[in-house]
Amino acid sequence: MQLRAVLGDLTEADVDVVVNAANPGLLGGGGVDGAIHRRGGPEILAECRAVKERLPGGRLPRGDAVATTAGRLPARWVVHTAGPIWSASEDRSAVLRSCYASSLRVADGLGARTVAFPAVSAGIYGWPVDDAARQAVAGVCSVEPEHVVEVRFVLFSPEVLAAFEQALSG
Ligand code: AR6
Asked: Macro domain: from which residue to which, for each copy (predicted)?
């Protein structure tokens, strides 16, 4: 499996699976979640509602992942994961690593060969970007997929890209 980091917009990624930094309610939000629903169209939200009905309490546990159609995005599927909110007093890093591992397993189960991730939890959820990048690489590397040959981190700013490049070289 090849891991790389690029600067760009996740909604334009030419991959089989795009991972969404969603929330447990699964009905959209700001940040990359908002961008995915805007660009992907209403089909994604419709499937999110259906998926939500099958989840206990209608909520996706943080660290878990579920798949839907990618609607009008170039990707074939969106895998939605809910990251942890950053806490200075509690170590939630296992949950963040689990977002990457769970998403990659779901993507692999679909037969995806290429998967693009954003920097989960590093925006609205406030996770410090250097550590977010380290947890991302550790989470992805904890999985040995059957089908996935490329994981691409698609980052929105040069600062976040630099953090991922550093984590990948470590
Ligand atoms: N392509 C790539 N990266 C992006 C894009 C994009 N189009 N847009 C934003 N980013 P965030 P979180 C970057 O806030 O911290 C939502 O309301 C962004 O700069 O999207 O996990 C959800 O519904 C940052 O580096 O996700 C949740 O409630 C990274 O993506 C909550 O926000 C993640 O930022 C999740 O917060």
From this structure: 1-170
Which superfamily does 2-169 belong to?
A: Leucine Aminopeptidase, subunit E, domain 1 (3.40.220.10)
Domain boundaries, the chain: 2-169
ipTM above 0.95, yes or no: yes
Tell the residue nearest (CA) to atom 12 of ligand 1: 121
Verdict on whether the full-model pTM lies above 0.95 = yes
Predicted confidence (pLDDT) per residue in 62-88, tens digit: 999 999 999 999 999 999 999 999 999
Q: Which residues contact 80 (CB under 8 A, 6 or more apart)?
A: 19, 20, 22, 26, 48, 51, 60, 65, 66, 67, 68
Substitution candidate for ligand 1 out of 87, 156, 159 with most atoms within 8 A of CB: 156
Q: Which atom of ligand 1 is nearest to the CA of 127?
A: 15
